[in-house]
Amino acid sequence: MINAYKIESFTKLTNGGRHSHLTISSDQRFLGFAAHGGDYEYECDQVFRLDLNDVSDMSKLSSGLGLSTMPMFVPNTTYNIGFSSNVHKVNFY
């Protein structure tokens, strides 16, 4: 027999676009992710941070120029996020 879980409720955290590379802070307060398109209005992935205590508080951490991806919370810091980025305006999509 397979164990099944019933999920009671969902909270939508983002609107539209494509999302990837989700990471969560060690205290589970912040999400970091890459996103583009839709309401984000960027052709290439950009890195965002979302405060789970106030989901209206979402900030873009990358420059908006070129591709930024693979966010990761830096261990032993106060919510610092490292990510991969280039500085050129590119269109991969």
Mean pLDDT: 84
Structural class: mainly beta
Strand count, sense and closure of the main sheet?
A: 4 strands, antiparallel
Based on DSSP secondary structure assignment, what is the total number of beta strands? 6
How far apart the termini lie comes to 44 Å
Q: What would you report as the Rg, rounded to the nearest angstrom?
A: 15 Å
Number of domains: 1
Query: How do the helices and strands follow one another from N- to C-terminus?
Result: EEEEEE
Query: Tell me, what's the shape?
Result: globular
- DSSP helical segment count: 0
What portion of the residues fall into strands of 2 or more residues? 35-45%
Strand order of the largest sheet: 1-2-3-4
- Helical content stands at under 10%
Poorly predicted runs are none
SSE layout:
Layout: E1 18-24, E2 30-36, E3 46-51, E4 58-60, E5 68-73, E6 81-85
Antiparallel strand pairs: 1-2, 2-3, 3-4, 5-6
Please give a handful of descriptors for the protein shown:
two-stranded antiparallel ribbon; globular; TLDc domain-containing protein; 93 residues; mainly beta; 0% helix
